[in-house]
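S., here's the first fold you wanted:
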Amino acid sequence: MQTMSKPQRFCGREFGADEVALIREIVTTCRGISRRELSHTVCELLEWKRSGGGLKARECLDLLELLEAKGLLKLPGKKHTGYNGPQKSIAPDPGQAPYSALAGSVEDFAPLDVQRVQTREQRDLFRDLLSRYHYLGYAMPFGARLQYLVSVSRPRPEVLGCIQFSSPAWRMKARDQWIGWDDVRREAALQQVVNNSRFLVLARIRNLASAILACTLRRLSADWQQQYGIEPLLVETLVDRQRFHGGCYRAANWIELGETSGRGRMDRANQRHGAAVKTILVYPLVKNAARRLRDGSAGPKPGAGQ
């Protein structure tokens, strides 16, 4: 693979050697995701946006293909996704009344029905619910992603939860120390970590949140492998400690590792240290997850003795 000797200028922006190196790292570590997903991830990390705030995803895709033509990286094969919807939407009134009036205990409504979001109708519903009721709204996630709608069938069919899993954070000190990663192993194994990047519960039903976590995690590994060809070993999430305690994660046996620096993904200049501190929690999907991520050692096949 060739290296870049001078800055690359494209669509009015100059990309230096450090930025091209980051782009190459993204393409290398995000194995299994589409070109479109790569372009959105690169735009987010490099903050390459239009004046109105939208990502320059189309230009970025052209840049990726140019870099590939110059022998600087290798992109995945092309595939059609058909998605032309908005990249981000936030409800104008996030303080409106809860979506569902159901109450009681989760046992009163069991079993929960978990549906992977795949159709246009499901995508529209998922996006609309997050936009209306999640404090962060809906945003195109980084890299790979799986989304689920969770519903009940009685007393009537009703969606009570939305949950999204996506590509992991690039670096988190507490997580990386818990695993025992150096930079080489982190780059090699990062995509075996999955981030629970959105979680929305739409009814005041006791234990509903931990039940949604449990039933979606039971199918996450198989669905992720089917979609991306990668076996996930660990799930991570970040809980805004100023808003939530994270009790549903602890009730579902997640492990608290510590706190983030508060910078966020976009603060590459370290200008927002401590501005948005979040609690880091993880859930191993297999036995010895940390050891396998650290050492690259093989484990039992999914579903075998776990």
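And the second, which I think is the more interesting of the pair:
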Amino acid sequence: MGGKAEPGLSQLDIVKDEAGLMLKIGLTGGIGSGKSTVTRLFADLGVPIIDMDIIAREVVMPGQPALDEIKALFGSEICTPDNELDRKKLRDIVFSDAVKRKQLEDIVHPRIRDRVKDLQAELDAPYCIIVIPLLLETEGQDRIDRILVVDTSIEEQIQRTMQRDKVSEDQVRKIIASQVDRQTRLDKADDIINNSGATAQLQAQVSKLHQQYLVLARIKPPNS
């Protein structure tokens, strides 16, 4: 789960289910902040997870109509010999071309919205976590109930991403520069998890928030 934000998520309009009864927590954070680890800890507590990165990958798998449209737009060379989307090549293109990025979004976003809506309709729980790496770069904040930011230092972000993705420091810094800055992210947060310490400290923060969210879910007004 998590990792790099998938190309085409930057303008995502998060779908709110019609009933509006479930508490929706939008989990976000900069690249390498530890969103995947925090998500797994919530999942271990039985909290349902909707991960935008996973959905974004699913809708462009071989055989999906979106992949055919992407190939028509970017050319067949955007795929590997196995007919899978070459995500690195696509990412390099859309990060440097706003027009191409918008065209990609127009292909991918409607399918992501439909899938999110379907997943939400299937859930029966007090609250869910919706993992949205670029939540604060979008206009979807008003479609969730709370923003949960996973935070760590920029130095930690760089080191973790370099190690995980086998990329250069310059590449990581460019990605960080394309995202909302750290202070803005913290200012927008309803809740913050500090992921600069030990695993035990991280687990304690997740457990505390879990209890808080259960309470909030019980008092959340219907159709709010």
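Why I say that: The two ends are 29 Å apart (CA to CA). Residues 23-216 form a domain with the Rossmann fold fold (CATH 3.40.50.300).

Talk tomorrow,
H.
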